[in-house]
Amino acid sequence: MNTPTKKSYTVRSSVESRYADAAKAPEAALCCPVDYDPKWLEAIPEEVIEKDYGCGDPSKWLQPGETVLDLGSGTGKICFIASQVVGAKGRVIGVDMTNEMLEVARRNAPVVAERIGFSNTEFRKGRIQDLRLDLEAFDAAMRELPADAARDYLAIEDLAADLRVKQPLVQDDSVDVVVSNCVLNLVEPEEKPRLFNELFRVLKKGGRAVISDIVSDEPVPEHLRQDATLWSGCISGALTEQGFLKAFDHAGFHGIELVKFESEPWQTVEGIEFRSVTVQAWKGKIGPCYEKGQAAIYLGPYAEVRDDDGHRYPGASAWPYATRPSAFSKTAPRPRLCLLPRRSTRALRRGPALPLPDRHPPPPARDQGRRRHPRPRRNQRWPQRPVLLNAP
């Protein structure tokens, strides 16, 4: 566990204090202009809308029936929008650490449920970089400790560790989509890697993160990072545009894409531009790559593409297609490839071979990088059933 520093305590206390006040009275300085679909807002009480602070709308990338986790859910606006998008068969969980924000969200949840005709939303107290620890369960357990133990740092640490294992706030591999709206930048610098690892942990294989946040076009200098007001205002804690994407990559995500990038900055401080972006990133490609008896032709329009695993696909040429034996979602972004049946010379003499199941993977794809000879795939004995991935 990371040891708290004076700076991290100052950051956390300034964020908690400012957002507690913003739950009582709206603060316009915490908002980026965002266009939400009006049809979703009709069921949401005005108090929730007025006290919502964000920089994007990750709910646009949700689907019916999904389980959604909203990090830093605040008064619940994105949760209440998501609850309508995923429908009665879906589920929405909001996590926030501020009591005042949770009070507004929980008080308005029954109102929204009555208006939309079903209840599928709940709010939990926790820190988004530590999604195992249920802070309300922790507070209740602390009250049960003897007075001497409550002052014992090691006893408190043991209690928290026990709760993380026995009563996790959010379990491993339990949600389809993690969303967040202008919250990740508020987390202390030393805790950010842990935060992205937590995003990855709670997602199911094939799940995705859709994160709206503020990024900078160059690194934020230390004197700005020391400004508690700028930090709680979503400025000083911003990662760079490239650093934000790399944070997803380092946590193990694939198919990382900017689904929205604001060309105009939200604010400019000392010549540094801060703007809103929305990133979508996927979980599911785990382990070594294997060939599965197919070749791929890249359909263009560029000279070539390279995927996250380093496989190159020059245009208009057949190349071995390799993937990982995992539940990577079919809707995740991929190059525009046409997959063609392929057999070795030995397989041709023996007749068509059946594809091997994932539990018995074929040998690793060692011939990536060598062009596939076109003659075998033109053989008339092969079933010509091309598969188009992301074709127009």
Structure write-up:
By secondary structure, the chain is α/β, with parallel strands linked by helices. The protein is built from 14 helices and 15 strands. α1 packs across α5 (99-116) and α6 (135-144) packs across α8 (153-166). It is globular. The chain starts with 5 loop residues before the first helix and ends with a strand. Residues 325-329, 342-363 and 373-392 have low confidence and may be disordered.
β-strand percent reads 15-25%
| Tally of DSSP helical segments | 14
User: What is the CA-atom radius of gyration, in angstroms?
Assistant: 24 Å
Shape: globular
In short:
The chain is an alpha/beta fold and 392 residues long.
